[in-house]
Amino acid sequence: MAISAFILYYTFQDTDKYQSWMDLRLPMFVSGLGAASAMSGILYSDSSLHAFLFGHAVLISLLITGISAEMEISEVIPGALKISSPLLIVALCSLISPLGGLFSLVSKFHIIHPISILLIGSVPLASVLFGCSQLISKLNVSDAGNGLNLNLPIHLGTTLSMAFASLTLFYLYIQNRSHKNGDMIVDSKKKGAGVATFFAVMTSTFMASQHSETYFAIFPLLVGSLSAILLAAFFASIADVWYPVGTGQFQMISLDSSAILLYVVTPLFVLYFRFLEKHGAFCEEKLILFIDYASSAGILPTVSSYDIEDMTMVSLLLMLGVVTAVGVPLLNVLCPLGGHIYGRLYTHGQPNTKRIALCVDFSDLFDNKVSMDGRKELWEALNKCKSDDEGTSSLNVFVTMKDMKQNAALVKELIAAGHFVGIGSNNDGSLIDIIRWKSVEVSLKESFDEFAVITGTNPSWFHVGAIHSEGMHPASFQKAYKLGMRAAMWSVHTFVNRSTGLSDAEMASIRDGVEQHRGGNFIYVSSLKRSKGNGSVAEALRQIVTNIQSIENDGGYVFESMPAVAKENPGMILS
Fold it and tell me: Residues near 568 by Cβ (< 8 Å), separated by ≥ 6?
């Protein structure tokens, strides 16, 4: 909130809209709504929830701004509904199952990609910079078209710098991520919801940029989102560089990172604004002289065929919209922040140990279509690569309440055979889960109790599951933590198509991850439910075991239980 306050004050300072800090009370409230909507989408790992909350934030902002400007209610309400409608439509579609399925159609549109970040972000950035130079060269900085009277260009430096820093951070984060094939969001509906929300945010932002009143209403909202997303990306990206094993190390690294903010970034931030107060006018004067010289020398082109003021203001708003539209789905894909805040979450174990956790859902492993011979071959392959200090190699199998009710004896056999069994997520989730916190906790507690009754011991691990499930709900992480369980995701996940089996590209991604970190990998394999054929998850697991064993001649890699791969208090093993 403090960051947003400084940005808004120095952006709107001495304009016809805001004259003092007290005039920023309403924009500050609106920026808080933007920050809250962005963080909710990140913590719940759900872009449709972000669309729902951001859409309502846009609606509330436009209504409040219109009423405070003494506009007619009959004019304010239709305009507010029109601008917020793209976001609210996306949220509504996510609630209706048949319509939500349409999101799968756009899931292949890759907005979380380095090239996409460059293409999407560079256009509005270049437009803003060029527009600022044209405004300076025309010496009419204070006379903006369409009533969009902002301080240009000096006082926009913070906003532009933060937006540029966010896009740069996004690009570097994707390029240098630890798990190249470990997307945390793998369900096509959730991916599609992220793409749909991206277009909805950009559409609403563009519509709001066309009029001065709606522009000033949505600008603080996007600044609040920018501040929240930049801070979240800052902590997540720094932690990713250090490759934390579990929530404990993630929080420790984040605490150290906060010291960077406190002792380095914050003083620079304050010094920048103090510099503006003392020397802003002088710098602007020199910048005008430089731009004038560049224009007269032909170095910088001069454009007068269209309204450069409006173009610059629209581009600035669209750039902030890009950060909001891309930032939430990007963080959902790269870092499960909600799990680290509410529970004890692991995406991998200790590297350089040559220990690997091979994970699968009970329902996929014991599907009726999977023959007994396929599972027998898998057991044989695992036993060939057992470690010296363990009796057998372990498969990590996760069971739901339904699995335990219907196959209690089989669950006991798996444990007796030396395999590790944990509990998985029970139900599909939806946008309504935000008001179903208690029911999510009850569902997990029932699975916990059923497991204890069947096996005689409490489960120690909980798996969130791959498909759009309630496992990603913060309530699940929190309840698992209270019950003494650690939560697991994956360092690489793959769907097995029954008609084609495991592809060469998928096998290569698994192998690359193992070779990069030399152990500690959580390899999660699940079945593509809509596929048909004779292929099986058991056969895919056997292929993975055989392929990983061929990485080194001595067959040094072993497949262990989750507790053995991700120890809570491990010794340090350096390569």
Answer: 246, 248
Is residue 274 very low, low, confident or very high in pLDDT (cuts 50, 70, 90)?
A: confident
With H, G, I as helix, E, B as strand and everything else as coil, classify residue 243: coil
Q: What's the CA gap between 156 and 163, in Å, rounded?
A: 11
Burial zone of 416 (CB within 10 Å; 0-12 exposed, 13-18 middle, 19+ buried): exposed
Which of these ranges, 81-85, 87-91, 422-426, has the smallest mean pLDDT?
422-426
Q: Given pLDDT bands bounded at 50, 70 and 90, which one contains residue 535? A: low
pTM: 0.86
Output the 3-class SS for 160-209.
HHHHHHHHHHHHHHHHCCCCCCCCCCCCHHHHHHHHHHHHHHHHHHHHHC
CB 158 within 8 A of CB 13: no
Question: Ramachandran region of residue 533, left (φ > 0), alpha (ψ -120 to 50) or beta?
Answer: left
pLDDT of 146 reads 41
Residues 562 and 196: their CA atoms lie apart, in Å, by 36
pLDDT value, residue 412: 92
Residue whose pair of structure tokens reads 């190699």 in the numeric block:
393
| Cα three-residue angle 169-173-179, rounded to 5 degrees | 170
Q: On the CB side of 207, how many CA atoms lie within 13 Å of its CA? A: 18
> What is the reported pLDDT for 315?
82
Q: How far apart are CA 486 and CA 34, in angstroms?
A: 32
Residue 408 · residue 572 · CB < 8 Å: no
Q: What is the pLDDT of residues 19-35, one digit of tens each?
A: 555 566 777 888 889 99
**CA separation for the pair 569, 352 (Å, rounded):** 15
Select the more confidently predicted residue: 389 or 97.
97
β-pair partners for 355: 558
DSSP 532: -
**3-state DSSP call for residue 427?**
coil
Average of per-residue pLDDT across 494-512:
83
Reduced to 3 states (helix: H, G, I; strand: E, B; else coil), residue 45 is coil
Q: Residue 292's pLDDT is what?
A: 65
The β-bridge relationship of strands 486-488 and 522-527 is unpaired
Burial code (b: 16+ CB inside 10 Å, e: under 16) for 329-364 equals bbbbbbbbbbbbbbbbbbbbbbbebbbbbbbbbbbb
H/E run at residue 117: helix 114-138
Cβ 224 vs Cβ 34: under 8 Å: yes
**H runs (alpha helix) in 297-348:** 308-334, 337-342
Please give the distance of CA 175 from its chain centroid, rounded to a whole number: 15
Q: How far apart are CA 394 and CA 415, in angstroms?
A: 10
Going by their DSSP bridges, the two strands 355-361 and 522-527 should be labelled as parallel
Query: Which residue, 230, 224, 159, 218, is CA-closest to 7?
Result: 159
- Length of the chain, in residues: 575
DSSP 101: G
Say which amino acid occupies 376.
Answer: K
Return the minimum-mean-pLDDT range out of 54-63, 65-74, 346-355.
65-74
